[in-house]
Design brief:
about 70 residues, four-stranded antiparallel sheet
């Protein structure tokens, strides 16, 4: 279903590290790649991070581990 989507990465303390997607999207399958950097382009430390996908009707979150 087409609509607005926001995909962000948060650290384990709940602070937003990076916003990967924030736009209207067409229906279908999409992908995004996080390069392990924060919003300013600085590399972040290894650890546990949360990806959060928010759409008009739903919010999905998953844990991921960054290992350097």
């Amino acid at each position: 279903e087409a609509g607005f989507a926001e995909l962000s990465v948060y650290n384990i303390a709940g602070q937003k590290v990076r916003e990967l997607v924030s736009s209207e999207m067409t229906a279908g399958i999409h992908s995004a790649v996080w390069d392990g950097r924060d919003q300013q382009g600085n590399p972040v430390s290894s650890g546990v991070f949360i990806s959060r996908l928010r759409t008009r009707d739903n919010v999905f979150s998953n844990r991921m581990i960054l290992v350097r």
